[in-house]
Amino acid sequence: NAGVTQTPKFRVLKTGQSMTLLCAQDMNHEYMYWYRQDPGMGLRLIHYSVGEGTTAKGEVPDGYNVSRLKKQNFLLGLESAAPSQTSVYFCASSYSPLGGELFFGEGSRLTVL
Amino acid sequence: KQEVTQIPAALSVPEGENLVLNCSFTDSAIYNLQWFRQDPGKGLTSLLLIQSSQREQTSGRLNASLDKSSGRSTLYIAASQPGDSATYLCAVTGNQFYFGTGTSLTVIP
To answer: B99 to chain A nearest CA, in Å?
Structure first.
């Protein structure tokens, strides 16, 4: 019973490098989300998807790109990492925000030097 | 925009005490409210989900209530244990999920 799985769990990047975070869910959920969590800032929505092939911007989308080529996967990309992107990233999924329960992955801790 | 507030930001209680965590929101037009637990370095674990038509939900020693008209929810923890130490977050659902910044709970043995 995997639920929501994120890879990698830890990553250290140098400024300007690129990387992709992978989120996979096995609950057949339509909705998937990427959040970042920073001390004192709470959870902030980066991008989200309402179904395969769709993506939309959240509260803090700048510097990130996403893709949802398969229903079960939601990828978060950093094309040119900056120190301000040092954070813990969480993926989540739900059947629907309209009454559906939200399930989270374990998080991916990213440090940009 | 929906604003979710959790007060206090931190709470410390002796083991065995009953306690209440608070969550308030500004827009009562919500679909549901969810309480989560987050342990240090871990993801968020769902504790209770209250649909907008419900008043409360119970799971073991946890009881969550919802009063949409006043924009408030409470999470009641009975007979607290050191293992309950964690950060507790609430989230309300409109067209997306809106999170509070959490209450950090420490239960002292």
So the answer is: 7
Residue-wise pLDDT for A39-98, tens only, equals: 888 899 999 999 999 999 999 999 999 999 999 999 999 999 999 999 999 999 998 867
Are B46 and A99 a contacting pair at CB < 8 A?
no
Mean pLDDT score, B54-60: 94
**Is B82 exposed, middle or buried, given 0-12, 13-18 or 19+ CB atoms closer than 10 A?**
exposed
A101: closest CA of chain B, how far (Å): 7
Determine, for residues B102 and A42 on separate chains, whether the beta-carbon distance falls below 8 Å.
Answer: yes
Contacts of B45 (CB under 8 A, 6+ apart): A104, B36, B37, B38, B39
3-class state of residue B83 by DSSP: helix
The amino acid present at B41, given as its one-letter code, is G
The residue of chain A with its CA nearest to that of B38 is A106
Cα dihedral sign for A24, A29, A35, A40? Answer: negative
Interface of A with B (CB under 8 A): 4, 33, 40-43, 45, 48, 58, 90, 92, 94, 97-107
Instruction: Decide if pLDDT at A99 tops 70.
Output: no
Give per-residue burial for B5-40: e unless 16+ CB within 10 Å, then b. Answer: ebeeeeeebeeeeebebebbbeeeebbbbbbbbbee
